[in-house]
Amino acid sequence: MKAALRPVLRIMALWRQRFPMLTLGLVIALASVAVGVGLMASAGARLAGALVGVGAGAVLLAGWVRGLGVARIVLRYLERLVAHDATFRALGDLRVWFFRGLARRAAGGLGFLRAGDMLARVVNDVEALDGLYLRLLIPLSAVLVLLPAVVVFAARQSLALAATLAVLVAFVAFFLPWRAARGTLARGEHLSRAIAQLRITVLDAVSGLREVRAFGAEGRMLALVQARSSTLFEAQHDEARGLARASFATMLAAQAALFAVLLAASLRPAGAAGIASATTLFLTLAAFEAIALLPRAGALAGRISAAARRVLENAEAPVHSYEPPAPILTPRGFALRFEAVSFRWREDRRPVLDGLTLEVPEGAHVAVLGPSGAGKSTLAALALKIASPESGRLSLGGADYAALPADFIRRHVAWLGQTTHLFDDTIRANLRLARPDANEPALWQALEAARIADVVRDLPDGLDTWVGEGGTRFSGGQGRRLALARALLSPAPILILDEPCAGLDAATERAFLATLNEAAAGRSVLLITHRLTGVERLDRIWRLAGGKAIAAAG
Amino acid sequence: MSEKNPAQAAWLKAESRAARKFVAPVLALGLVGVALGIGQAAAIAAVLAHALVGSPRVVWGPLAGFALLAVLRAGTSFAGEIAASKAGIAGRRRLRNDVMARLFAAGPALLRRHHSGEIATAAIDRIEGLDGFYGRWLPAAGLAVAGPALVLLAAALVDLRAAALLFLAGLLVPVGMALAGIGAARAARRQFVAMARLQARFLDRVRGIATLVLYGRAEDEAAQLALAADELRRRTLRVLRVAFLSSTILDVAMVAALIGFALSAARGAAPMPALFLLLLVPEFFAPLRAFALAYQDRMQAHASAEALSALPPAPAPAPALAVRHVTASGVSVAFEGVSYSWDPARGPALEDVSFRLRAGESLVLVGPSGAGKSTIIEMLLGFIRPDRGRVTLNGADIATIVPAALAELTAWIGQKPMIFAGTLAENIRFARPSASDEAVREAARLARVDAFAAHLPHGLDTEIGEGGFGLSGGEAQRVAIARAYLKNAPLLLLDEPTAHLDPATEAEVIESLRRLAIGRTVILASHSAAAREFGGRRLDLRQGRIVTAAERGAA
Questions:
Q1: Chain A residues 134-173 with a CB less than 8 Å from chain B
Q2: Which of A65, A100, A213, B152 has its CA 20 to 30 A from that of A336?
Q3: Hey, what CATH topology would domain A2-315 get?
């Protein structure tokens, strides 16, 4: 139970900023419950009084009831509004916090994390957390008002009745939610896993529609989706059964309480004692209505806790490299050096780089050649400080990378990789990502250099054309060139181009490489590629082999 | 407004009809619950009336009745919840099977129009979002009429005037809700748009998070997200304000009914019927309350309907033509005056293309990107049909060959093979699920998969794809070649298989492909020089037309 509580407490700590609003919601909720108690008690008394004809104070009471009724309706409305507002603010904060956390450790891409799984966390898990305040905290606090009220009123009739009602209220408000929560921890995990698995399978099947058709695998893939879907449905039905059980027990307890009140009423009739009975009956009805949903919320606790854990897991995974808050050393110039660098991505994999030494002098255009898997992209990751070397060191203008914040390095090293993402936004916004203050001529210049300006000029909306999700409105080659334009727009003195021409046809590739010298004049270029076309003008060429860089003809 | 979209409305109507069988038990159990509630009201009224004005003795009859009805009612509500869960599951199961079948029938052409993430969201989240529609909204909509009607009947049996009063209070509810609802529908619609935008934006930013971080823009983007989230909150609250207002109208109507009854009770009615009528009031309003609560499930259903009705329509039944037999000697291919265009605005992708390829021959398609090479391959895979002309395999028009039989004939290797989540061996076995372990190992050996698999922690049993080890382009292409070996189909279609490989890897892959090609009919599309050394006849394409030798010489 403790392990399940920890992530929930951590999430609540993240809501610190929203405490005033959350507290306000709670206070209004309590006031509303208190007024509700008063209303039911006085309405019961008035009604019973009227029925037996003891209506001396009826007129006075009627005004009182009306006032309480109006207050109750207004407070109830306010409570819902404020409580929901506070929850949405808190959830919004959480999403942004999650994004920031992800950003801190995702510079290397989502890495080994399943993209589908990540989306599940962002969408479903954060949403599951809304029950924490609305369905658990508020009704639990209401019990603090309800329990004493019920006990005090019932005690005027009989102590036995008061004790019985107190036990039943506590049973529903505390025991049942706790009981329901106990069994749901494993279930919550199971449910989250089931939906993530289904997501991965469906994404695989859809992304692989070509393979599925080419291999006639429709039936098999459908069966797999059905199997995953069934697993999810079973998990959901399990949860539904748990919820139904909790409701069943709640209902029995509430009815038992009513029965106790009725029994007490029929044991000690009539007249004034009867009026007290009616009051207690109304109050009991109201009390159980207020806490009726708590056991269900308890049954959801497992899911809430699992969701909290998964949200935290992703956003709080440790960041490996140490980050100085500000440059400890000031680089002199922008020469980029790798000195005897060794690196492996994972303990259980071969080292990718093994004592590599390489230099990109300021303003030089350097190519690194190598077959796939030789560690070319690793070079980029190290140069961008996405990863840190196991041994050896990198330096920028003589300053050790360890002494420079990653932000500082990324302001000076621009990158175009194979996985550069085009955002579902306008061309202009996509370009300005690299330089927010870039003016129109600068944008066109970059497009020109990337050989895409003509295409953009022919579009009816020009720079304001929407590129679509992942750049889907453009062909693969055009998308690459837009990304290229973005990299060229960046004011960084060092450009790392990691296979910039992948997916371009030969003619476009040559045209681009031929203009690169001009476009990147005055900047350092590190061109990472598996082959040269012969049109590049380079100052130096390195070949990667066996984790080392070997100088080739330049 | 969503209500005015006829496609969505028709879709929802059809869904409601299809779900009727599973919704009926939920509705029936709900009605039984209302009936039991009426019985309980009578029991309580009897006991309480006795306590107020009766003689001092315990009224065991009504007390026992109350207890019995209480247990029955709890049981009914339990059964109702289980039935609702089942209805939700049955509806979603049927819908997901239907959607997936439609996606598979539409095939790869779908990916040219829709993003895979968008389709997956429809098949998962949009369908999951319909749970409440089947399990809550449909039963609640039925019960909101039948439940109060039953209570009215009970009230009428006791006091006709009181029943009329209750009926009037009940009428207040739809009127009030309609007044509130006019504004609500539009606000709700806007809220859903905002929500969809925020989600799309968030997912887009998460996918491209590396790019954001490397350009140092993560913080700006986080601020933008915070703004978007706040916008969403304000819109959601606008909807909720109205929703809460309509539930407040319910409260007011109920209080009005209670006060009316209480006043008539004060005028000296008999305690037992007066109490009974009073206790009926909450029972009367409970189904209406459930209806108001389920209204958001209906909104959700509208959003789902929008996404799901945009998917391709149900597949037409397969042509009732016999599967063509294939002779053991292989497959011959012929294009006869074939034209095709992906998009009329962009001109034809293929124009009057004719060629013939005997069984066992190899053909290399050459030309710049956009020349129509991939279009030819996709046509042979049956992904698309010619606009004009015809394509034949062993003399049979490809349009008459059912997809399953066509898939039997062909093996295909594209630019970027899809690696599924699973082990390396499972990925190879994808080509032929019935293959023995021995056959899978043999295919891995022939395609040289074993060479890199040896470096993986569990060899061929290493998890790859989503969440597993990433493979390099060359390694993924070897997996695709292993699949082709395992499948052992007579027609081999290769669509730029080395486009993303370095020269050394390309040479190795071409070598593997050359061995794979022995004894098969092969069509290779490529703009790489190395691939042209593959051997076989050459067909030059430019802008969808075949370039003759004379034209080549002239150019």
A1: none
A2: A100
A3: ABC transporter transmembrane region fold (1.20.1560)
